[in-house]
Design goal:
This protein is of the alpha/beta class. It has a 9-stranded parallel beta sheet with strand order 7-6-5-4-3-2-1-9-8, covered by helices on one side. The structure holds flavin-adenine dinucleotide. The site of flavin-adenine dinucleotide (FAD) has 24 residues, from strand 3, strand 4, helix 5 and helix 6.
Amino acid sequence: MSPPSLIDTHPNLVGTAPVALSYELFPPRSPAAAESLWTTIGELEATDPDYVSVTYGASGSNRNTAVELINRLVQETTLRPLAHLTCVGNSPQELAEIIGELLDVGVRGILALRGDQPKDGVAPPEGSLRYAQDLIELIRRVEQRRSALLCAGKVAVGVAAYPTRHPESPSEAHDVEVLLAKQRSGADFAITQVFFHTEQYADLLTRARRAGVTIPIIPGVMPLTSLRRLARLSELTGVEADPALIGRLAAAETDAERTRIGVSATVDLANAALDAGAPGLHLYTFNEHTAALDVLDKLALPRPRRGNRHSSHQRSAGRRQLAS
Ligand code: FAD
């Protein structure tokens, strides 16, 4: 029998980790949207998140704008990008090329997703990957081939997790089996789909831990301030919004009241997830910062102080001072 390690005999040596903070952005669809996105990026950067995720259209529909946004984040900000990547409709060769391109621009975190099936019901081309699990294995293979280039940090692979049943899945138990399979294939962490009831994250965590899932499961939380967005989100994800919240938002007489109701509901969801042991918080921003920052202000997350990092806003303010 080997002697117990120092870590085993003194478990408190490891201490508790700070709560991770991240935001989701999507690649802009027009020059005006890009301008507003960069204002948002500046505001979010000032909160010093651990990473920002950048979505990716199913079948690579926005590949160029996604890679361009990621490249600018790496070049012009202090933010670390987590690149979403979907595999539906793409061959392993095409995907290996995109993974290589992401690694070349400095990406070290990829969220491996299947993507939604095309609505027209057309079968994916022969040989294309079927599940997120296949993509994880492909990322690991590309990583292995480049291991000498990755000596200063390997690739962190994330996956999707579902607090409520995935629309194509037979049951929540099946969803957890799939999450376990993704962990076995090499996933390092999971981010959840949106959810609207405070107990849903804790329930997922309990089911997943019981099944043997050990990776961090980070709750994805959306500021619930817009009725239009809630409706669109339900349509896209199949997750039904809370009718009571919809009623309260619909009854609000001013935008300010709607924002107050929505932010408060989001803070309740986030606090319930943190109380259940969430290791971080991922905010779906829809490329807008105001509601996300309102939520953050009310949460007072225990975050590390990083005195030596300066946001690009602070840096450009410094440059302006030097120039004047
Ligand atoms: P998978 O894990 O592959 O699961 C897909 C379906 O197949 C599920 O029903 C699952 O139960 C089933 N399944 C999986 N493996 C097996 C197996 N071995 N045998 C049998 N059944 C199996 N979509 C985008 O297009 N772009 C994005 O940027 C994007 N970002 C997202 C970010 C997050 C945090 C989340 C939660 C979702 C995101 N989505 C995105 C949506 C996602 O692509 C859809 O939910 C998609 O329908 C499923 O993706 P997945 O990675 O969970 O797929």
